[in-house]
Design brief:
By secondary structure, the chain is of the alpha/beta class. The chain has a single domain, classed as Ribonuclease H-like superfamily/Ribonuclease H (Nucleotidyltransferase, domain 5, 2-Layer Sandwich), CATH 3.30.420.10. It has helices at residues 11-14, 73-79, 93-110, 123-136, 152-159, 165-172, 184-204; strands at 18-27, 37-47, 53-62, 115-120, 144-151. The chain has a five-stranded mixed β-sheet with strand order 3-2-1-4-5, sandwiched between helices. Helix 4 links the parallel strand 4 (115-120) and strand 5 (144-151). Helix 5 crosses helix 7 (184-204) and helix 6 (165-172) crosses helix 7. GO terms for molecular function: 3'-5' exonuclease activity; magnesium ion binding; nucleic acid binding; RNA exonuclease activity, producing 5'-phosphomonoesters. Mg(2+) 1 binds at residue 24. The active site is at 182 (proton donor/acceptor). The record marks 30, 78, 125, 147 as: Important for substrate binding and specificity.
């Protein structure tokens, strides 16, 4: 007999109709409109019939700096990316985003969601670069929410008392190799594991589904 799924334990109900997609971007600077986007990776998520959040699919692309973009020496020295190395197998921003958006739309449909929502560590940085690249590429139908994000740095500060990705992972029991950090693929995978742990830990602690019937009113506390 097939397992009847509790509708409380679906991604669309858990996140108010939004489908979370974990993203990390490596760039040649901090300014999304002028500095080159060099690397992007995403991890999609799924939820089992008991409501536990898990990792699903992964996409990763090296990106050709867009025409006229700025490449700051200190940034590429920090993330150790050579933007002009022919062995990178880099593709255009538009090509990468079209592939990413295609997968995200598929997942949105599969989970009966209405919009994708970006999940990242210090999410405003990645969100700004994603939106700027989408606009440059002339992509009209962007599946992501235009301003709302889930920031694992903020959530980790609340739950673990740490905002640095490596330290938050360490406290969460997620192995983290500093020598592999600042690779979009590695950081996205670790951020995805961290986000799943944050959501699942809240459930283990009894925070989901919310028990509103036994909660005191604010003015009674």
């Amino acid at each position: 007999m097939p397992i009847k799924k509790d509708t409380r334990f679906t991604i669309n109900n858990r996140f108010r109709g939004f489908y979370p997609v974990v993203i990390d971007i490596e760039s040649a600077g901090f300014h999304a409109k002028t500095d080159a986007l060099l690397e992007i990776a995403i991890v999609t998520l799924k939820m089992n019939h008991l409501g536990w959040l898990k990792i699903a699919d992964t996409l990763h692309f090296h990106i050709i700096p867009f025409k006229g973009s700025i490449i700051k020496k200190e940034s590429v020295e920090f993330n150790k990316i050579d933007p002009f190395n022919p062995l990178r197998g880099a593709i255009s921003e538009k090509n990468a985003l079209e592939n990413i958006f295609r997968l995200v739309r598929k997942k949105i449909d599969e989970h009966s969601c209405k919009k994708g929502i970006l999940v990242a560590h210090n999410a405003s940085f990645d969100h700004n670069f994603l939106m700027a690249a989408s606009k440059r590429s002339g992509i009209i139908k962007n599946p992501f929410h235009p301003f709302t994000t889930f920031d694992t740095a903020t959530l980790s500060g609340l739950i673990f008392g740490q905002t640095v990705l490596a330290k938050a992972c360490q406290i969460a029991g997620i192995p983290f190799d500093i020598s592999q950090a600042h690779s979009a693929l590695y950081d996205t995978k670790k951020t995805a594991h961290l986000f799943c742990e944050l959501v699942n830990r809240w459930k283990r602690l009894g925070g989901w589904p919310p028990q509103t019937s036994h909660r005191k009113k604010y003015d009674e506390i």
